Amino acid sequence: MADVNRGNRPLSPHLSVYKPQLTSITSILTRITGNAMLLAALMIVWWFLALAAGPEAYASASWWITSFIGDLIMLGSVWALWYHYLAGLRHLYWDTGRGLDIETAEKLGKGVIIGSFVLTLLTIIVV
Amino acid sequence: MNFRTDRQRVEGLGSAKTGTDHHWKMTLTSVGLAILVPLFIFTFGATLGSDYETALAVYSRPFPALVAILTLTVGWMHFKGGVQILIEDYTHGGTRTALIIATTCLSYAAAAAGIFAIVSIAL
Which of B10, B40, B41 to substitute to test the interface with A, most A CBs within 10 Å? Predict the structure, then answer.
């Protein structure tokens, strides 16, 4: 019989049973920051289309993107970008088979969080 | 009574599909973006908020235009792959298929629109 115990097997515990840890928080933040950048990416494409379309279109796109809400989205996205950038570098390092022990992973996680804020501050100063 | 065989039940559920190719493409685009993103942030960021003539002058130059074209192309392809994983993790069946089609179309459309705009500015 092929399906004697089908649908009656124990399930492995899922996310909700674990207490949040640095490794899990930095992991989910990588996903959130990566996908949240959709908004800023669309605004950047809009900016380029407006610049190509002419002065009036550019003026309105530029006004929206540098408005209070636009600035807030852009500032958040700069942080998201640097966070995702550093987390991505961490993934590339992990892919070589190194840094996978808990101590190193947590150390790298702290580096990603601190580094993202430092790079955001640097971007605000330079740009 | 279920007449499906064990093999029939598990076929297609394993990991041996296109995951390796997907992972490699994410790795490849991430390395590209590791180089492009800093270049883009500091050329685009410095231009954002400037007047029409200045912005036009910046993106008429080859370096800022090429950095922007490459960043948008590689960036949107990286998004296409990343958001597909997000969709596959949280949705199933028809919703999953529809969302993957929609985000794939959006990624190509946004990349194409960006490239078209930059090319028409630069030329």
Answer: B41
